[in-house]
Design a protein that fits this description.
The chain has one domain. About 5% of the residues are buried. It is mainly alpha-helical. The longest helix has 10 residues.
Amino acid sequence: MPIRRGRGRSIQQELEEGGVIARACSRESLSEEMPEAYKDVADVVRVCQAAGISRMVAKLRPVGVIKG
């Protein structure tokens, strides 16, 4: 669970150091945006492309997160 892995960490600072601006209404909400909370998107894209259900057309980088 992401919330447990975020204890004792400054998630806000970690995201900012990675160039991501994050605003959230609570620490628990922000913990959902930790990189460990997501699958590696490059792996997901490769699998989808290999399965023939999509094709890679661009590589994007997040610059902001807004959690309500």
